[in-house]
Amino acid sequence: MPGSRSKPNHLPMMLAMVVGLILCIFSAPSIAHDSNSSNAPKPDLICHTSNPDECYPRVFQPTEEFQIVHDDQELPNGLHVRLNIWTGQKEAKINVPGEADPSLEGLPVDQAVVMVDPEEQRDGPKIPKGAPEYEPVGKVMGPEHESAALAEGLNMLKSGISKSGQAFDDALETLEDLSHDMYYGLKIAQDTEAIEALLCLMCGQSAPTTDGADPHDQQAASILAGVFQNNPAALKEVTAFWPQLLVESRCPNTGKSLHLRLYSSVEPSRNGDGANAQQAAARVKSKVAVINGLIKDGSIRKHFLREGGMESLLKVLIPEDKAWARAQRKVGQLVLDNFLDENMGAALGEWPYLPKLGDEICQTEDSGTAEGCWDYHVARIMKSSSEASEEEEDWSRQLIDRLVAARKEKNNERKHEEL
């Protein structure tokens, strides 16, 4: 029969189709996988060990969570990067503007200070028993070979050998040169007899004995100014014996104690102001420099104020001869640096005490050196210095401005006390 012969012919064809379909189903994932892997870029990895699990991309791959950034990884721009304060490791993630970091909650941020426990701050650091005392100045290192001229000059100064002739002038000149060195300045300051001799010489009015030499008082002042200038160790040595020096020392050239002569030594009348204004002003300028160095010490500064030192300084501002301009500027700088300009280390509030006086009072000879007349004399110098250098104008204007401010502050304090 024709129908019975056709069935066997279709069976092999159907089986082939089923097998082909099954093969397509199982082979499709493999083909898709091969296709994707051939198109996707392979990551550039950094591997420090043979374990592939420890490898990481060369370019950091950010997510929405912080991840550790390795030191040799490259960071794309625009990420939120932080330093984990607990682990010390750098971390990064996708940046979200305005997002707060919860790990910083409760911690001080944007401050360049370290919070210290008040108890620790009050007690201070623990100093080991037997530790050497802290010295803020530091050790002043000496030269490999000390100058023999220093010892020779100091011996001549202290011995009372005739203070005349070329040898003594040369000795003072040598001491002046050495005084500017920190080590030799300290050596001079440590010699009590030498300091006493120099101060007594400064308070005198001896004239030079050789042609071209400065007066001995000016030379002595130049040595002392060199000793104290930028040499806190030297000033510390002198302040240690300062009270005894002022009270007990009797100067052979004057017969009076330093207590009565030192601060007034800057007054023009004690330096031959009528004979040679140029030389008198130079002598005064050197002595003002010594006072400026000494009153950097608080105890000496208070003694200076009690003993009328400011009145002696004010007398330097009275001469109207232009020869006195540099000495007057030196006085102005002393007042600013020690009493009125906090930026220069001045002790504010110690001076002035009293209010400003009227110009009519300050123009009189009897009242012209009163404390309230500083403003008048400085203003007069400022007005008359229109043709002077800007440097001279600057100190007088600064001094006027700060005097006004200081007197205003003192006046407010008095009103507060009255209330």
UniProtKB/TrEMBL annotation:
Keywords: Signal. InterPro entries: ARM-like. Residues 1-32 form the signal peptide. It comes from the Eukaryota. This is Nucleotide exchange factor SIL1. It comes from Metarhizium acridum (strain CQMa 102). The lineage of its organism: Eukaryota, Fungi, Dikarya, Ascomycota, Pezizomycotina.
